[in-house]
Amino acid sequence: DVILEKLYLTHERSLHIGKDGCSRNILLT
Predict the structure, then answer these.
(1) What is the pLDDT of residues 1-29, one digit of tens each?
(2) What is the DSSP letter of 26?
(3) What is the Cα 10 distance to its own chain's centre?
(4) How high is the pLDDT of residue 13?
(5) 20 Cβ contact partners less than 8 Å away, ≥ 6 residues apart
(6) Residue by residue, what is the 3-state secondary structure of the chain?
(7) Is this structure's pTM higher than 0.90?
(8) What b/e string do you get for 7-25 counting C-beta neighbours within 10 Å, with b at 16 or more?
(9) Cα–Cα distance, 22 to 4 (Å, whole number)
(10) What's in the GO CC field (predicted)?
(11) Cα gap 13→8, rounded to integer Å
C-alpha cells in the first residue's frame, strides 16, 4: 500500500510539473 501511495504521489507531482512546464513554455513564446 505504501509503495502504491508513493507512486501515486510522484505521478501527481509529475502532472503538476508538466502543467507548470506547459504554462511556462506558453509564456516564453
Answers:
(1) 788 888 888 877 777 666 666 666 666 65
(2) H
(3) 8
(4) 76
(5) none
(6) CHHHHHHHHHHHHHHHHHHHHHHHHHHHC
(7) no
(8) eeeeeeeeeeeeeeeeeee
(9) 27
(10) host cell membrane
(11) 9
